[in-house]
Give the backbone structure.
Amino acid sequence: MEADLRMWLKQVEELGQLKRVEGADWNLELGCLTNLNAKNRKGPALLFDKIKDHKEGFRVLTCSSSSPERLSITLNLPQGLSDLEMQKALWQKLIKCEEELDKYSTVTVKSGPILENIKSGDDVDVLELPAPKWHALDGGRFIGTADAVVTQDPDNGEINVGTYRMMVHDKKTIGLFFAPGQHGFLHCSKYHAKNEPAPVAISYGHHPLLFSVACIEFPPGSEYDYVGALREAPVKVIKEELTGLPIPADSEIVVVGYVPPNKFKDEGPFGEWPGYYGSGIRPARYVEVKRIYHRNNPILLGSPPNHPPSDASYQKEMVRGALLCHDLTKMGVPDIRGVQVSEVGARQLVVISIKQRYAGHAKQAAILLSQNRLTAVQGRYVIVVDEDIDPTNIQEVLWALCTRSDPEKDIDIIRRAPSSSLDPIIRRPTDHFFNSRAIIDACKPYEWFNEFPQEIKISPELEKRVKEKFGSQLGL
């Protein structure tokens, strides 16, 4: 599997999953089209060209992995899987990746497509790149919504690749919004503690798999290696000349520069993943851009958050679900059927399906799930269901919730759990972001599991026979 975005586009187009759009305005139109299209799971990937005020050939790609077909291509999985089947296939792939991670360390090369155009000094102009203003109340043009920000720990040399929002200030300055505790934030803070500028390299166009890994909480320092393991070929990187950071050799656009210590510029607001403008204008770090690399006719990868479902909500929740299955199994929770981080629940509703093996199994799974690294910040609800319930099917989940749980007995509350500055239910102003978690046991009571009323079912044999006999008449 190639890591090149253009090879990915070729595969997607061959499936009839790509739509080319010409003449959209970077100011709101591109964002509106993206978000309308993202509401439709069957909608295509969108490749925008001839964007208003920009050179022809400077393009923007959105909705890269918002369908099962395109996500399967991105994750190097077979076509035609259901959501639960895709999660299980990715879960098994993650187990293999973890075992073989050392085999897929990055390979440093001397050249690559990213070196086709190099701009330094007076030629640096970020505004040449078609960064959209995605939402009406955004504070500016956000070039970084599906980026891959490369930073390095100055103490141990660890490389991290993360996704952070980035607003264009001017032709040589880009905002960089970190949340405290994120690895990029920690790396920059170590440089700033020494009163030194922090080097950064940002890829703005790449195979969607790099975005899938960079935007989710994979183990620190391993993002490039996981990309290599998932696609079964190491990532080729170039040691960037100014910063020394490893940049993807086949990236479409890379911007490099330094984050100065103790300097901030006002940033925001920005429409964020919960579906709200989570914060107003605030001081944020920024990058002083020193060099821009780009391919001929470069493609900027965009992924604007919105009221879910949005551009990246499907891929994020599918990948998080597989990671959670893997994490909880390693923590000793047995017989997990699947985990669904609800797309419409904006990451704040998580459902786990288990086969109950012992008293307290459901509660154990719920507590550990609620405090996992992937769900601990700004979670809301955890629902545990039996193995006969498909956690990716919200109708089945709600049926189990309403028929197998008793509010008095089966709901527990965890108080003063960690939230974030994007939490819309926290009243401002405040510097302390706590919330609570509801844990709901929607499993059949373990003590009298075998006495629970028998469910109405249609046998697979009867269903198959009836569909064969009458399916064409009824559209079944």
